[in-house]
Write a structure and sequence with these properties.
The structure holds 2 protein chains of 2 kinds. The mean pLDDT of chain A is 80. The longest helix of chain A is centred in the first third of the chain and has 38 residues, at 12-49. Chain A is mostly helical. Chain A is built from 9 helices and no strands. Chain B is globular, with a radius of gyration of 21 Å. The chains are: A mainly alpha, B mainly alpha.
């Protein structure tokens, strides 16, 4: 689509550069992510063996029972989901990714159709992408840099926006699940 | 100031807490670390093809400015429902790329001022959602899911709610 449009507007040279550069760009991203992922997967395994993930999952169990009705109470995935969301809340997205991928892997093991997403997977991703960041440090830094009179005056409002959009997203998730169930069974 | 610095303390604290608990539980820390790290390496390699494909597609879409052109077509509609057209590029890029939307946010803050209504709206949008399309393709890609069912619809719906909320909250609290 983008390529077709560039032919129409004579921007082909930009796309040319992009084709050359994107390999390098993704390698850059890969190299910046790779050590992080390896390190955190290691630390994560220590945390798991020390029983921290179980502890987190246990704490959030009442909430999880409502959000993930399909999962069993002591499902391994819940520990990873809890860690992923907790770290996301503090705005450290790179560190939360290994936990999230691990959670997906656990959910996939119990998935009867390996190529089709399960309800719990979608709910988890909706929770993750609707964003439950409580303190976005990078945004605060930018606001301070550009001379905001009070950089933190948006923190409360952002949290409010996040809570509202997460709730709407969960409703939508539940609604779409019911629609898809009806559609698939008929 | 304090809030901004809180994040810096969090990560070291987490690591410290994990290791202290592990020592208390008599876990063989180094061995378990290596086992986990090996697994992390496998995951990282297995997501690389998805990463490279995704970045290629995303960058071409962004650089060709196709999206901004399509968007300008709908300007009268957004003006009619009181959404400033200046923040639409932000709304469009936010689900696709975190870095690109961060750049758009800084651009708008520079142009209109950090404490302007527009500057506040984009700050909220950057903070209140995550990159929907990126997360969905990475997470599902890593485990080989091909049929994502309604995941994208639900995720993008949350982004739409955030756009409306940011406009609504800023006009509610700052005017």
């Amino acid at each position: 689509m983008g390529i077709g449009y560039s032919f129409l507007t004579g921007r082909v040279e930009i796309i040319n550069n992009e084709i050359m550069d994107s390999g390098k760009n993704s390698l850059d991203l890969f190299f910046s992510m790779f050590p992080f992922m390896v390190l955190w997967s290691g630390i994560m395994n220590v945390a798991k063996k020390a029983g921290i993930l179980d502890f987190l999952a246990k704490r959030m169990r009442p909430l999880f029972r409502i959000i993930f009705p399909e999962l069993e109470e002591n499902d391994e995935a819940l520990g990873y989901i809890a860690s992923n969301l907790t770290i996301n809340m503090l705005g450290i997205h790179n560190a939360s990714t290994p936990f999230g991928l691990k959670a997906m892997k656990c959910l996939q093991e119990k998935n009867p159709h390996k190529k089709i997403a399960t309800r719990s997977m979608i709910t988890f991703l909706v929770l993750n992408t609707s964003g439950v960041t409580l303190i976005a440090t990078d945004i605060l830094a930018v606001r301070r840099m550009y001379g905001s009179a009070n950089p933190t005056d948006l923190v409360f409002i952002t949290i409010l926006a996040t809570i509202v959009n997460t709730m709407f997203a969960l409703f939508m998730d539940c609604f779409l699940w019911k629609v898809s169930k009806k559609y698939e069974s008929s | 100031m304090n809030l901004a610095n809180l994040g810096n303390f969090f990560l070291p604290l987490v690591v410290l807490l994990i290791f202290l608990t592990a020592i208390y539980q008599k876990v063989n820390i180094y061995d378990e670390f290596v086992v986990g790290a090996k697994e992390g390496m496998k995951t990282a390699f297995s997501i690389f093809p998805y990463l490279i494909g995704m970045i290629f597609g995303i960058n071409i879409l962004l650089k060709s400015e196709l999206l901004t052109q399509i968007l300008s077509f709908f300007h009268p509609f957004f003006q009619a429902i009181h959404i400033p057209v200046e923040i639409l590029p932000m709304a469009l890029v936010r689900p696709i790329s975190g870095n690109a939307s961060f750049a758009v946010m800084i651009d708008i803050i520079k142009t209109y001022g950090v404490d302007s209504a527009l500057g506040r709206m984009v700050s909220i949008m950057q903070g209140a959602t995550d990159t929907t399309i990126y997360v969905i393709s990475l997470y599902f890609g890593s485990i080989g899911i091909q049929n994502i069912r309604y995941a994208l619809k639900a995720g993008l719906f949350a982004d739409l709610v955030t756009l409306l909320m940011s406009v609504f909250l800023v006009s509610l609290f700052f005017h």
